[in-house]
Amino acid sequence: MDSQPKRKPNAREIAGRMRGEIAAGTFGPGDRLPGARAYAKKLGVALMTVQNAYTQLQEEGLVEGVAGSGTYVRDPAPGEQGPRETAQRMTEMQAEVARVSTELAGLAERVKQLEAVVSPAKGESGA
Fold first, then answer.
1. Spatial separation of the C-alpha atoms in residues 16 and 29, rounded to whole Å
2. Contact 58, 52 (CB under 8 A)
3. C-alpha 24: how far from chain center
4. What is the pLDDT of residue 126?
5. pLDDT digits (tens, 9 = 90+) for 106-119
6. Are 33 and 73 contacting, i.e. CB atoms less than 8 angstroms apart?
7. Burial 70-100 (b: 16+ CB within 10 A, else e)
8. Could you tell me whether strands 70-73 and 63-66 are parallel, antiparallel, or unpaired per DSSP bridges?
9. What is the pLDDT of residue 82?
10. Residue range 8-15: mean pLDDT, rounded
11. Percentage of residues of the chain with pLDDT beyond 90
């Protein structure tokens, strides 16, 4: 039994989840995303959190909101890249950014270690 309460997802994580579902084809062009109010209740988050996630997806060009109707996966114009491909590319880019960030953190740690080794040697030569 888990004594820690499960952490609620934030808007960025919800958008990532929906982006993944669009990339996987769970939601295709013209499909309606879950209603924000019901989805918020299901996830146990504030309505604004889901609305912010949907806004993020809209800014990415993946979905469009229809007043009084809901949020739908965009149907691309002829010759335009579809939302599934866009979502897949964004998911790949996020994974690459995470990989590079991890690599940079490792390099920063190595620089600190080298500086620690070099600093005492500098002090000794100046004496």
1. 18
2. no
3. 15
4. 53
5. 999 999 998 888 87
6. yes
7. ebbbbeeeeeeebbbebbbebbeeeeeeeee
8. antiparallel
9. 79
10. 95
11. 56
